[in-house]
Amino acid sequence: MTRPALPPRPRLQRWQPVERVKPRAVKAAVWLWIVAAVVQLVSSSLALIDGQQLHADVLAEVAQGFPAEEEATRERVAVAVLALLLGTGPLIALLELSFVVALNRGKRWARPVLAVLAGVVLLHAVIVVGGLRSMFLVGLVVASGMTVAAVIVSFLPAARSWFAGGEKR
Fold first, then answer.
1. Residue 78: pLDDT over 70
2. 149 contacts 53 by C-beta, under 8 angstroms
């Protein structure tokens, strides 16, 4: 007796890519970070509209704190303080955007780095809004609130499972 011929075996691919669906929590965190960075950039840029008034305010504070210093020294200090306070905003926003790219790609290390950066954003907003008076700087407070919300969302259980899955990244 002869055996009946077996049907041909289907060819299986050795490696079949598995599509991982990104949770809404991760997407929301990424968008919150992006919007917060844009708000921070816009707020810092718009504060330059009040640049003359901010400079005069800082110069008055420096003159009050250091009355014995020369006028040129007080002027340099006021410019340095303004450059430091207003210049760090865009720098922090660019750092946020660069780390958000890593967060969007699922890198595990991006969440704790962005959590620390959210603390820096919050501290920066407190210092700038406490030291300078401009209505445009309210955006820094809004941006810091959004970064805190983004950190919270990125550590929700759905997001945790996204970052925990798979190999080391």
1. yes
2. no
